[in-house]
Design brief:
The complex is a heterotrimer of chains A (250), B (663) and C (426).
Chain A: E1 4-16, E2 22-34, E3 37-42, H1 49-56, E4 64-69, E5 72-73, H2 78-84, E6 85-89, H3 100-110, H4 115-128, H5 144-156, E7 162-166, H6 174-189, E8 193-198, H7 201-207, E9 210-215, E10 218-223, H8 225-232, H9 237-249
Helix pairs in contact in A: 3-4, 3-5, 5-6, 8-9
Chain B: H1 4-17, H2 20-54, E1 57-62, H3 66-73, E2 78-82, H4 89-97, E3 103-106, E4 121-126, H5 131-158, E5 169-175, H6 179-217, H7 219-224, H8 230-261, H9 278-305, H10 309-329, H11 347-358, H12 363-388, H13 391-395, H14 407-461, H15 471-474, H16 484-510, H17 527-555, H18 560-574, H19 581-598, H20 602-624, H21 634-652
Chain C: H1 7-23, H2 26-59, E1 63-67, H3 73-78, E2 85-89, H4 103-112, E3 123-130, E4 133-140, H5 145-172, H6 177-181, E5 184-189, H7 193-230, H8 234-238, H9 244-280, H10 293-318, H11 324-340, H12 344-347, H13 354-357, H14 362-373, H15 378-404, H16 407-410, H17 416-421
Parallel strand pairs in C: 1-2, 1-3
Antiparallel strand pairs in C: 3-4
Helix pairs in contact in C: 1-9, 2-9, 7-9, 7-10, 7-11, 7-14, 9-10, 9-15, 10-14, 10-15
The chains are: A alpha/beta (250), B mainly alpha (663), C alpha/beta (426).
Amino acid sequence: MSEALVTTIGLSKVYSDHAGGQIRAVDSLDLSCHAGEIFGLLGLNGAGKTTTMRMLSTALTPTAGRAEVCGHDIQTAAREVRASIGFLSGTTGLYHRLTAREMIETFGRLHGMEAQHLKSRVEEVLDLFEIDKYAGMRCEKLSTGMKQKVNIARAIVHDPPVLILDEPTSGLDVLAAATTLEFVQKLRELGKCVLYSTHIMSEVERLCDRIAIIHGGRLRGLGTLDELRVSTNRHYLEDIFRDLVREDAA
Amino acid sequence: MKSPLGLLVWKEATELRRDRKVIFFAIVMPAILYPMLMSLSGGLTEKRIDELSETHVTVGVVGKLKSVEDVLAELPNLSLREYPSDLFADSLAALVRAAEVEAFVDLRAGWEAREGDEIPQLIVYAHRSREESREAAERVTDRLQELREAERQRRWESAGGRGRLDDVIRETFVDVASESASAGASTGRMLVYLLLFSVFGAGSAVAMEMIAGEKERGTLETLFLTPFNRVHIARAKLIVATASTMLAGVLMVSSMMLAYRMGWISTEGEAVNTAISYQALLTAALLVLPLAILTAGMLLLISAWVRSLKEGQYYQMPMMMLFFIPAVLSTSQVIQLNPIVAMIPIANVGLAMRDVIIGTANPGLLVIVVVSTLVWGALALKGVTTLMSREATVLGFDPEPVFAQTHGGRLRAIHFSMILGLLAFFYVGQWMQAKWELMGVGLSLWILVPAIAFGVYRFAAGRSAPGWTGLRDTLSLRLPAARWFLIAPLFALGSMLPIAEGIWGLQSRFLPAPELLPLAGLEDISLLTAILLMAVTPAITEELLYRGVCLGLMRRQMSAVWAIAFSALYFSAMHLSVFRIAPTLALGCLFAWIALRSRSIFPAMLCHLVYNGGLVLGGWYGESHEFPLSPTGPFAWAASLAVLGLGVVLARGARSETGVRAG
Amino acid sequence: MPAAPSGLSAVGLIVRKELREALRDRNMVIQLLLLPIIIYPLMGFGAYQVYLIIQGASQGQVNISWIDSELPAELRESLPDDERHLFLPTPPELDATGAGADADLFVRLRAEFEGHGDEKPLALLSWWVVGDSTYAQIHYESSSDRSQEMRRLFRDRIRDHSEALARKNAGAVGLSEAEFAVFELKSENTASASQVARYVLSIAMPIFLMSMLSHGTFYSTLDTVVGERERSTMETLFSAPLPRSAVLLGKLIFVVISTLVTFTLNMLSLLLFLGFALQLVELPVEIELQVPLVSILIIVGAVLLLSITLASIMMLLALPAKTYREGQAVLTPVHLVVAFSSFAALGTGQTMTVDQALIPLLNVVMLCKTVIGGEYTWATVWISYAVLAGLGVISMVLARRFVGREGVFFDPTLNLKRLLRGGFRA
């Protein structure tokens, strides 16, 4: 396997609640992801997936543990980390008043791309995601599916080695979701390291090379689908998930 | 089961009372902010006046008039500084200008009794743009006047006069106004003024939230999916908006009265008479109800029209003007309430409230005010219900580009360019007229108006549908049927009296125009110049813009009636006078109808020329001659109506264009 | 991989992005560019029409008054003889006859008066002589402006007549005109037309300045901070490899630019309109407005610093707001405080003290007032600048610290109170 581009060691995030107690959103997470791999983070709502993604994208600071992205520590080299990733989540919107092309160009510039290179790169991603037809339309006029494509294009325009995708199909219709999944697969073919979080089993089954099952902030299972099948003696991912999660409850 | 209206009202009220912005505008501002601001501004002004009266000032003096100097020197917080008597007047002024002294008194003329009637002149120099200087001059002047009176009395007594020389006539004043009426006159002005603004402010905050805010939050659609019908929903919103607006109004009045009574607001150190009767206050408070209904209705109408809160905000500014003008008018007692004024929305309530607070309100007129305001409010509510039923309003479709190649886009382009043109005429045209007078009038009409017409055409026509027929067709630059060269002047002659006397006369009953409207530089012009400038020029240039470009473009986007109405509205707005709105609106409609009916702009031009020319000629003739018959008497009216009737008959036989619309 | 932009280039990218977005937002263009241009002509036009309406209404009115038959001829002739005034003989019932007219009777007779449309007598001037003493009594109604006008007219005419009588009496005992007059008192104004104009402007300008500045900052702050959050682009932006301080600075520069543009348009529109209005209306005094360039530059400097400070403070307060509405609710009191701070100009003198220079907002108001009026010292100017700059820096530092907090963007329960309670740590 190629070198790990993302590693976490004992990564934790603890919040204080109003009553003075503690909420362990992420608890001692150890995982690693490699180039040319789609690494799935599977868990229910509130499991800790988004918190993990946000820590890796340097939006949040870990309470304990450490993590590295492309060899940069997320706490001491945050800018270098952000320069190495493309981030996409359900809450990363588009600038309504910019056109699709302008949106991608702006973020290319924000990632330090030179003008000449940026121009050709923008055309490349427009073509790749088949959004050249409406590149001149303002983002507010685009349908949900088109917006998502633009969002993904925005996330990869600077050709980052690591993509962090936090529930990228949430709110999309069937066709738009399918298109998104196709593009995610393309990203793997391009040799990217893709961290993909979701609560939809079918997406994980279809896309992910390795899967980490998170529940209550803790890692419940890690491995390829086959490895998980062997370890739990179950075939379907849904059953595997229920077993691993139930163990914790028990 | 609870009444639907009750449930909806409860829901609206619950949402609103948890909205910080609404609480601020409906409660905090009226109850606290306005009295605080009034108190602050009054207090600060008073403080400044007190400070100035305590300020030590230095006054320069020339001339040996010891008695005067001694007296001046006795003034508290004032010291005198003597200067050599050979200083010129310019030097004295320079010393004051340079703030060496705050004021200067030139006593060199003295005041000893002298032969003849030469009266000595004492001069006080002050720098009017400096407060301390004005204060010093005022103190010195007051004291000198006292000295003069005392010296005069002394001379009178020395000459053998008995008693007080200045006590020739003993004057007394008897105020027959009741205390409450007097209080109403002094405090009522500000009260009504602030009341209108606080009602508007609260209404805006509330109304915008109720519909535009719900659209933004996506809850309007949810509400419409309930079993309640739209009328109930609109009524519930109106009830809650009215209640909030009324609360703001009542709070404002109560807090202002409390502030006045507690002495927190004073007028230049004097106690303010706040003995307004409770009856007057109660009646005024009741008048707030119809005002609140109307205000809430109007603002809900805007709220239903716009797509977002932000968009609603920029409609609020022009709306505020509708409150600003009546608010200012109600501070003056000059405008009287009469049956016609009693029907003009907002202004009627402002004036009625003023009269109620003073105690001069006519009950019959109050009834008209209340009923007419309620009628306007009901119309607004109807408008709200209609707007709320539109799909676009409910589902919040994304707006098309402002000037898209659609019907709506083209209409907006026309209106936008016409409004820009009006602005350009206001700024540039009025400036030209003010700067170059006669020449300026000519330039503004011959250059500016055609330029505006060209600009409007280029901007608006360029967005037309394919198959646009071009400038000539838009302007209707074609010869009409020959009979129109007779019909047009007939209409012009026949409508002169109905418009100039009829409409103007009717308008004067509630909007009397001042005798002389300022028209600098146009007082002494020859008849020929007057005809060229006031008849020929507008007939060509204004017709090109309003009946040519404006009407021509609008006719292709809307029905004839609306096209006539809008073009006439712009035509009347261009005259930039509230007094001319009604007459020029009527004229604009007439010219537009002729243009459409004849399918040509030339009859409209001719009508305009004859109308204006007739007025100019009539005015010129009337200045130096006597008319054989009264130009406004029954014979003249009969003749006018006959001529008008003839024009109508002839026009009926002519071919009509009004039913035709371009593709 | 490309090197992430830093420093000024990062800031520049943000500013460019913000400007581009703002210029495409219809609401922003209307609020910040269009409204300033049309508001003054609209309001001025409205005010002028109101003035004409009042003038028109008053021209049609006739001020009727009752005057005593015993009134001396000279006094009678001094009363105005025009269409606006009508003086009728007092009804016999109201004849003063040595004791003055009965007030209630006056009110009753007045109400019963007919013969002139709806007009009623506004005042009654009674006149009688007892021995050597002459008495004048004026009945009027203080709640009526027109009645007050008649009272003032009668009072002034009576005083003029009294003066004339005194002169005559003085002459009778041998005093000459000059002896009687004693002296004439003349006032000379040493201020030029320009100085008078500057004085008037120094009172009015702070009011416009503060509200214009605040208006521009208010809307652009809401759009760039709260609007970003509402559109869910804040997280997108912060996922880029830019320092948060660069993002904040870029937004601040955008807000300052918008504020200054709106302010300039407002000012130009106001001055253009005022200049035009002064040409139309005849004033009782000559007005000539010339403000020295130095004064203008000082005010521009103060405006710039205040806009930076205001922008920082408003951005700081708007950070926790999650919706445009919430942001408006938070910023509206600030907007009003700034706009109404100009009232301070009413209670202060024409020179600025050092104490005043130390108080933010008041220092800008006073700077504007004193600089336009021409009575300022450089010490107060620099102190004001320093205070504003200091406040702006503190606000920006605080905003930077708050922006660095995680909860600012991800904690839906975070509000301003909790943010401040959390202290000033990043």
